[in-house]
């Protein structure tokens, strides 16, 4: 009878350890989803930012990449049918004064300089604001509610 009792105690301890392991795995998954691990948080934010900027109106950002010398290359597209003139592109506090006219659907590449050096593999995150004119109204603002996010190349 004593041997049977020892077996039951051992089984209880094993069940407790298995249950504890399951709880720890669930906790790690929950913490990673909440952004504790920077790599996972960056990917989650990027998957929200990219579709937002591709579909934003009137100007969308189709692609962006930051070089090691701090120059950000941005592909802008007019996502409306109307013709607009981009007057200023402000990314991360660095402004590009420009006067470029975009027909409906037209794409153009811009380089924003002076954003600071960036080591390969590290991440960047910049707020974007644009000032543009339409045929009717001047100095309209497009203020992004999400930043552009990416990894340095």
Give the gist of this structure.
The chain is an alpha+beta fold. It is built from two helices and nine strands; from the N terminus they run ααβββββββββ. It has a four-stranded antiparallel β-sheet with strand order 4-3-7-8, with no helix packed on it.
Query: What overall geometry do the principal axes of the alpha carbons give?
Result: elongated
How many DSSP-defined strands? 9
Strand ordering within the main sheet: 4-3-7-8
Q: Predict the CATH topology.
A: Immunoglobulin-like
Classify the helix fraction into a percent range.
25-40%
User: How many helical elements?
Assistant: 2
CATH top level assignment: Mainly Beta
Question: What is Rg?
Answer: 25 Å
From the N-terminal CA to the C-terminal CA, the straight-line distance is 69 Å
Strand content: 35-45%
Quick one: biggest sheet? 4 strands, antiparallel
Arithmetic mean pLDDT: 87
* Unreliable spans: none
As for the number of domains, it is 1
The arrangement of helices and strands along the chain is: HHEEEEEEEEE
CATH architecture term: Sandwich
Output the structural class.
alpha+beta
Verbal overview:
The chain has one domain (38-151): Immunoglobulin-like (Sandwich). The chain has a 4-stranded antiparallel β-sheet, with no helix packed on it. Strands 1-2-5 form a 3-stranded antiparallel β-sheet. The model has no long low-confidence stretch (mean pLDDT 87). The protein starts with a helix and ends with a strand. Helix content is 33%, strand content 37%. The chain has 2 helices and 9 strands. The protein has 153 residues and is α+β, with helices and mostly antiparallel strands.
